[in-house]
């Protein structure tokens, strides 16, 4: 990190404002070479976080733009290094010329996520906050924005650090007694270790319970729309999207493949999957579609089982609902409520939630949204949330180590063996925040970032 990086930090499209960003030991010196304030001395003589109006010039001194510039010196900046920004008009051509001027003045092109990587390496952000930056960039719903903002504010980091610090105190006490037997230190008791293990286990269990909601908010819930041919699956799919995405005809078997779209429904981001009608068929192409439908049902975390309410229920309908309910949380969608109703669901269908809708005219869709949102409640306190598989895997390893220690203690294992399990749990918790993390893991994390952030 001994060089200075530069990038366009805004989208590559015409806009009102475009930002050029610099970070590194020569950030302010590079800025001085390309930017001339209208009044006063160069930017190197100006105070931090003050907007100065002037002219951005290329290497030959020709004007590129009339814009604003600001500097933030280390360590009081986003990256922890000297940083600078130019707030220009949002012409992609003008920004490209400005970036070229920065390169000729001594900066190099920043890689994707390099500004945030430097913030992490300089201790300005822990790993959970780093991941929250990427989550905020990619947020597709208000719930995802709020969740990422909470993580960026340190909610998850604080929860992890509290567990880590409690375990660290127990380990410190154990080693102090072991290393300094002649000192006046309270003896280390097994009951102290057991209490710490139980407390940590409860907090890790509570944290793990947030993963389903956290991942659903960020990545979307795989939601398969399944049913027999002509039940109205594609019509429902289009109605939920608000546009004609899937082909709809009266001919059974029209849908031959799965069609997927993302949609915010009832405050839940769904990866909505329209599927081929489930039935036995001799048509080879349709049979492949049916197989993909069954695979989508097995991989779903929510299933909308669509039944044609204008026809009496059949054994095939009952079997479809049974298979769906065995695969994932299911909502029975009684479609075609605009027609005379002939389908009756008796108690033998179980207590599966059911909603009556007309996908053709939109009746009942609001109620369907409500039922879907009830499957993924935000909870009373969703501030500290696990949001991705990496976090869940590390938290699970910490919980497993705690459980080994908890099981070993009443079995008569010596405290030093149990403390080894505690230290393993601490190491896993450290991976969550970045106290102990491999470089290849950070590389994977920063793959999600865009250039300029």
Percent helix among the residues?
40-55%
Compute the number of structural domains: 3
CATH architecture of the largest domain: 3-Layer(aba) Sandwich
Write down the CATH class of the largest domain: Alpha Beta
CATH fold label of the largest domain: Rossmann fold
- Strand arrangement in the largest pleated sheet: 3-4-5-6-2-1-7
| C-alpha geometry | flat
* Fourth CATH level, the homologous superfamily of the largest domain: P-loop containing nucleotide triphosphate hydrolases
Number of E-state strands: 13
Q: Encode the helix/strand succession as letters.
A: EEHEEEEHEHHHHHHEHEEHEHEEHHHH
Structural class label: alpha/beta
Mean pLDDT over all positions: 85
Task: Give the helix/strand layout.
Layout lengths: L4 E4 L6 E9 L3 H8 E3 L14 E6 L5 E10 L10 E8 L1 H13 L3 E2 L4 H8 L5 H12 L3 H11 L2 H25 L10 H19 L2 H9 L1 E7 L5 H9 L17 E7 L2 E7 L9 H16 L2 E7 L6 H13 L2 E6 L18 E3 L8 H10 L14 H20 L6 H19 L5 H8 L7
Parallel strand pairs: 1-7, 8-10, 8-11, 11-12, 12-13
Antiparallel strand pairs: 1-2, 2-6, 3-4, 4-5, 5-6, 9-10
Helix pairs in contact: 4-5, 6-7, 6-14, 7-13, 13-14
Features:
single chain, 453 residues, alpha/beta, Gyrase A, domain 2, Four Helix Bundle (Hemerythrin (Met), subunit A), Rossmann fold, 3 domains, 7-stranded mixed β-sheet, 6-stranded mixed β-sheet, 15 helices, flat
Give structural notes:
It is a single chain. The chain folds into three domains: 5-110, Gyrase A, domain 2 (2-Layer Sandwich); 142-210 and 384-446, tRNA modification GTPase MnmE domain 2 (Four Helix Bundle (Hemerythrin (Met), subunit A), Up-down Bundle), CATH 1.20.120; 219-374, P-loop containing nucleotide triphosphate hydrolases (Rossmann fold), CATH 3.40.50.300. A hairpin with a 6-residue loop joins strand 1 (5-8) and strand 2 (15-23). The chain has 453 residues and is an alpha/beta fold. A seven-stranded mixed sheet has the order 3-4-5-6-2-1-7. A six-stranded mixed sheet has the order 9-10-8-11-12-13, with helices on both faces. Mean pLDDT is 85; it is low at 251-256. The protein contains 15 helices and 13 strands. Helix 6 (155-179) packs antiparallel against helix 14, helix 7 runs antiparallel to helix 13 and helix 13 packs antiparallel against helix 14 (415-433). The radius of gyration is 29 Å and the shape is flat.
């Amino acid at each position: 990190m001994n060089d200075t990086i530069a990038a366009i930090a805004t989208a590559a499209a015409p806009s009102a404002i475009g930002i050029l960003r610099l970070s590194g030991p020569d950030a302010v010196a590079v800025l001085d070479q390309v930017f001339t304030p209208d009044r006063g001395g160069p930017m190197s003589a100006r105070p931090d976080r003050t907007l100065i109006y002037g002219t951005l010039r290329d290497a030959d001194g020709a004007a590129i733009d009339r814009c604003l510039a600001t500097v933030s010196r280390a360590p009081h900046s986003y990256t922890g290094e000297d940083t600078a920004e130019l707030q220009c008009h949002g012409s992609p051509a003008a920004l490209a010329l400005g970036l070229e001027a920065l390169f000729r003045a001594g900066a190099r092109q920043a890689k994707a996520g390099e500004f945030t990587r430097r913030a992490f390496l300089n201790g300005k952000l822990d790993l959970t906050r780093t991941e929250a930056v990427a989550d905020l960039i990619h947020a597709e719903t208000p719930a995802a924005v709020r969740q990422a903002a909470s993580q960026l504010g340190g909610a998850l980091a604080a929860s992890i650090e509290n567990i880590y610090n409690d375990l660290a105190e127990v380990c410190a006490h154990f080693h102090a007694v072991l290393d300094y037997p002649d000192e006046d230190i309270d003896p280390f008791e097994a009951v102290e270790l057991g209490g710490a293990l139980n407390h940590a286990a409860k907090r890790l269990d509570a944290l793990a319970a947030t993963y389903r909601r956290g991942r659903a908010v960020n990545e979307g819930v795989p939601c398969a729309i399944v049913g027999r041919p002509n039940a109205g699956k594609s019509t429902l799919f289009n109605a939920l999207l608000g546009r004609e995405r899937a082909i709809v005809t009266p001919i059974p078997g029209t849908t031959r493949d799965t069609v997927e779209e993302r949609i915010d429904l009832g405050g839940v981001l769904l990866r909505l999957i329209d599927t081929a009608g489930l039935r036995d068929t001799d048509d080879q192409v349709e049979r492949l579609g049916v197989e993909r439908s069954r695979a989508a049902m097995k991989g779903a975390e929510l299933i909308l089982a669509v039944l044609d309410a204008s026809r009496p229920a059949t054994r095939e309908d009952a079997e479809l609902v049974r298979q769906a309910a065995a695969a994932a949380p299911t909502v029975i969608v009684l479609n075609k409520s605009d027609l005379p109703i002939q389908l009756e669901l008796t108690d033998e269908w179980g207590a599966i939630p059911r909603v009556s809708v007309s996908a053709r005219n939109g009746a009942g869709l609001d109620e369907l949204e409500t039922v879907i949102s009830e499957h993924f409640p935000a909870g009373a306190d969703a501030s500290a949330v696990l949001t991705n598989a990496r976090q869940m895997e590390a938290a699970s390893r910490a919980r497993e180590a705690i459980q080994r220690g908890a099981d070993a203690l009443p079995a008569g294992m010596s405290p030093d063996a149990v403390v080894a399990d505690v230290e393993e749990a601490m190491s896993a918790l450290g991976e969550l925040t970045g106290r102990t993390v491999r470089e290849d893991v950070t590389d994977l994390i920063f793959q999600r970032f865009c250039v300029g952030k």
